[in-house]
Specification:
Layout: H1 2-6, H2 10-13, H3 16-19, H4 22-35, H5 38-49, H6 52-61, H7 65-74, H8 80-84, H9 87-98, H10 109-134, H11 154-169, H12 175-180, H13 189-214, H14 220-227, H15 234-238, E1 242-243, E2 280-281, H16 284-296, H17 298-311
Helix pairs in contact: 6-14, 9-10, 9-13, 10-13, 16-17
Length: about 300
Amino acid sequence: MTNFSSTLPMSELFSTNRLAHETGLRAALCHLDALGGHNGLQPAIEHLLSHPRIFAYIVSVWDRSAEMVSQIVDDFPTDAQEYRSSLACEILDNVSVYALALPIESLAREVAKDIGRYRAFIEGAHPVLCALSAMKFADVQSLTSAESDDRVVNMQASQVMRKRNCQNARVTIDASLFIKLGMAVPPTSQAATSLSTDILAELKKTLSFYLSLLRRTELVGDIKALLFPNVEESAKDVAPEVSFPEDAESPSEESAYPMVQPMKAALFFDNADGFGDWQILISTEAYKHLREHRRADKKIFKIIYKKIKSVF
C-alpha cells in the first residue's frame, strides 16, 4: 500500500475524489506514515495547506497527527523575520479562517469565542510584527560612518546625527496597528524586542489551540461534512458519538439536570428519564481500536457502532 501511494502525485493522492472512499483515504494515510519525521512531512503539509478543508480532515482522522502537531508547535520560530516565512505562519493563516466555518452548535461557547478572538489577533499581529522590524531607534544608532574620516570635526558629527534623526522622523508608524492589539508603540529597541517576543509567544499558543481543535473527537463528523457536503449523513459515518473524558465539553445551554461525574456513577441509575441524550465515554485504547476498525473494514465498524448504541 505504501509503495502504491508513493507513486501518485500529491494532487491526486489527496484529492477529494480519492479521500471520499475508504481505499483512497487509507492510501493517503499510509503515504504519510511512510514519510517519517517532520522534515519528510513538510512538503505534504505545505501541499495540504493549499486546501485547508483537506488539511483539517487529514489531521482529524490520521492516527499519528498528534506527533505532527507536537513537532510543528515545538518548531515555532522565535524570530519575527523567520515567522513571516514559516510553516507555522501559513498554518495559522489558513486554519484560522477555516475554523470560522465550523458549525457553532458543535462548539462550546468559549471555544467559539476563542476562534473569533484568535483570528482577529492573527490578522492584527502580522502588520505589527512588520512595523516592529522596520522601526529604528536612537538608542542603537552610532556615529561610526561619520567618524570614518579622522578630519571630521564635532560639528560635522552633529550635522550627521541631526540628518539621521530627520530621516527617522520620516518613518511613519501607524499607532492604530498597536492599539487594535491593545498595545502601545514601543519607545526603545529593547521594548520593541520584548513586544515582538510576547506576540510570537501568543501566536504559538494560538497555533496549538487551532491544531488541537482539529483533533477533537466531537468535531470529526463536522470536519468531514465540510469537505464532503454532498455525502448524505457523512458526519455519522466518520466516528461514533463518543469522546475522551478529558476532552468532553460542557453543553452551551444548561439542561434541566446537570451531567453527573464521574461516568461510573451512571451504572447506578435505575431510570435515566430527564437526563436527555446520553454521551458515551470510552477509554483512549478502545477509541484507538474503533478507529483502526473504521479504517480497515467499514462494515465491521458499523456493526460495532450499532452494538454500542444498542447497549444504551
